[in-house]
Design a protein that fits this description.
By secondary structure, the protein is an alpha/beta fold. Helix content is 42%, strand content 17%. It contains 14 helices and twelve strands. The strands form four sheets. The chain has a five-stranded parallel beta sheet with strand order 2-3-6-1-7. It has a three-stranded antiparallel beta sheet with strand order 10-12-11.
């Protein structure tokens, strides 16, 4: 595995082999986040979508490729259970939490606070009152568990507590008709008499061996300043998003450590590492800093609607929406992001009209991350 001529293609192929249908970019990004567990600042993801769209399945299929001794799979942990563990229980592990609870009872709130501390401070602690038999009095003992963890959860909730959400990359699953067709065909293909068997044990074992071979490194990113200067700083969320970007670049370097020169115990990222990270991060970063989860629809809209001035029905027809809610939400988000200008309001049966801001319309891809060309033009390779 470590010597694969095209490691990324091999990971994509093996994700498909273990049952991940479609979702190749989300799957690969999750694989990178899970691999970042060995570093000091691992990443975190939350998959979002409607019930039955495969949010948790995506996380579980990727997790299969990681050894059991580096994973914590817990749908729910009470506040006390966080500390009824060994001191290194969380250290450099993948914490797979499954579906987010909708309950907001005190226990859930306490667990949420512990999670936020673990993700931000890479440790959790609390004070516990104990009775001292010698002094016959109460005293406080402080208990701490070290991280860090690479974290993943899923949710159907339309709104997630902001303090939790801004610590994670948001992966919106594909809810399209085309993806549903792929899933249905995948289910049916299990009954195909001519389908060649897949040696799943071989696939899984080689990933486990590969993951166990990886070791932490200090990763240097020569173009860090160019990247930092061009991240959109208008939103305060950028402060946490920046680390997520660097973590994904770092993970790209770590996965190919067996094929890279080492210098003074460090590995150096190339612009190609950024190119891959950027492609995987555009949609999640738009969810945090850009046009929201409608990024892909915004790209399609720009490509398909060539009119200078267009209306809600034009958008509905161009993108194949079967109701008015989808285009209305998309257009509202684009207006709020200052990418569209609303020219006229809806009046009776006359729809609202819009135009793109600027002469050529927005560069959606460079809105949240600088282009690869921009990094190269700054003198980096």
């Amino acid at each position: 595995m470590a010597r694969e001529p095209d490691l990324i293609a091999a990971i994509r192929r093996d994700l498909e082999a273990v049952g991940l249908v479609g979702e190749q970019d989300n799957g690969l990004l999750t694989y990178k986040i899970f691999s970042s567990r060995i570093q000091e600042k691992p990443g975190a993801v939350v998959t979002r979508g409607a019930s039955g769209t495969g949010k948790t399945t995506l996380l579980n299929k990727v997790a299969v490729l990681f050894p059991s001794d580096c994973k914590i799979e817990a749908m729910n942990m009470s506040p006390a259970s966080w500390f009824n563990t060994s001191e290194v229980h969380f250290k450099h592990k993948i914490f797979l939490a499954g579906e987010r609870k909708h309950a907001q009872d005190d226990g859930s709130k306490d667990a949420g606070a512990l999670l936020r501390q673990l993700l931000s401070e890479r440790r959790v602690n609390r004070g516990v009152s104990t009775f001292d038999e010698t002094t016959k009095g109460w005293r406080t003992e402080f208990v701490e568990r070290e991280g860090p963890v690479a974290y993943a959860e899923s949710t159907t909730s339309g709104s997630v507590f902001e303090e939790d959400l801004n610590r994670m990359l948001q992966l919106c699953v594909d809810e399209s008709e085309g993806q549903t067709r792929k899933v249905v065909e995948s289910i049916g293909s299990e009954y195909d008499p001519e389908k060649a068997p897949v040696d799943l044990k071989f696939v899984i074992d080689r990933h486990h061996e590969f993951q166990q071979s990886l070791r932490p490194y200090k990763v240097l990113i020569p173009y860090w300043k160019t990247l930092a200067e061009r991240l959109p700083a208008k939103k305060v969320e950028c402060r946490r998003v920046a680390q997520q970007v660097f973590t994904v670049i770092e993970a790209a370097v770590l996965l190919t450590q067996h094929c890279r020169p080492e210098r003074d115990g460090c590995l150096t990222a190339t612009v190609d590492d950024y190119a891959l990270a950027r492609r995987l991060l555009l949609a999640p970063l738009h969810a945090s800093l850009g046009v929201g989860k409608d990024y892909q629809n915004a790209l399609r809209l720009k490509a398909k609607v060539r009119k200078f001035v267009f209306s809600t029905p034009d958008v509905k027809q161009a993108l194949g929406f079967d109701n008015d809610m989808g285009p209305s939400r998309l257009l509202k988000g684009l207006v709020e992001a200052a990418l569209l200008v609303r020219l006229t309001e809806q009046k009776g049966r006359t729809p609202a009209t819009y135009k793109w801001a600027g002469k050529a319309g927005p560069d959606l891809e460079s809105m949240v991350l600088p282009s690869v060309a921009a990094i190269r033009e700054a003198g980096f390779t």
